[in-house]
């Protein structure tokens, strides 16, 4: 099942803007109870979230490209047999 590339891009763009900010502000009170450097650890948490989002996008894009290549090969082989 092929995904719409534009919707995938919109989904990951929204996630890239909102999730790191949410991770920063939600983890800051947690880290404040343990250490004085809560801002640093919260920023690290936001960076980790960004990396997770980027990995997810690259993984989806790579598999989508691989699926399209396999679909093209099967279509070409079916055209040759006809």
What does this protein structure show overall?
- With 82 residues, the chain is an all-alpha fold.
- The chain has one domain (15-77).
- 88% of the residues lie in helices and 0% in strands.
- The protein has two helices and no strands.
- It has helices at 5-32, 38-81.
- α1 runs antiparallel to α2 (38-81).
- It is rod-shaped.
- It starts with a helix and ends with a helix.
Overall pLDDT confidence: 87
Which range best describes the helical content: under 10%, 10-25%, 25-40%, 40-55%, 55-70% or over 70%?
A: over 70%
**First-last Cα distance:** 25 Å
Secondary-structure element pattern, one letter each: HH
Beta-strand percentage range: under 5%
The biggest beta sheet reads: none
Pfam families: VMA21
Organism: Medioppia subpectinata
GO biological process, one term: vacuolar proton-transporting V-type ATPase complex assembly
Protein name: Vacuolar ATPase assembly integral membrane protein VMA21 homolog
